Amino acid sequence: MADQTLSPALRQTAEQYLGRPLEAQEEQQLLLLQQNIQSQQPALSGAVQQARQQQNTLAMAAANQGVMQIYSLNTMAGAAATEKVAQGGIADNLTSLLTVLQSFINR
């Protein structure tokens, strides 16, 4: 059940702002405002918790994507290295073919 008394800090702030004591109607309005804010706190804390969970999920997804990119780059680097090795073999084959052709020409 909602508290039926106005918070002393809220009363003091309002009176300092107005420069005079609160009237009964003003106190009642501030009490309604205070109760409204207090009733919304659980919903707000639930929204904050949901936002934190969403932020954690996004952070994990970003980290996962980063790891996937690293593996992708590693795979691409491995493929490039394999291609260079394979091209090195082609050059050796061409050299061997030229040597064989030159041996036929020199006869």
Structure keywords:
2 helices; 0% strand; rod-shaped; mainly alpha; 107 residues; single chain
Can you describe what's shown?
The chain has 107 residues and is mainly alpha-helical. It has one domain (8-105). The chain is built from two helices and no strands.
As a percent range, the share of helical residues equals over 70%
Distance between the termini: 111 Å
- Number of helix segments? 2
Our estimate of the beta-strand percent is under 5%
What would a concise description of this structure say?
This protein has 107 residues and is mostly helical. The protein has helices at residues 8-18, 24-105.
Summarize the helices and strands and which ones pair or pack.
Layout: H1 8-18, H2 24-105
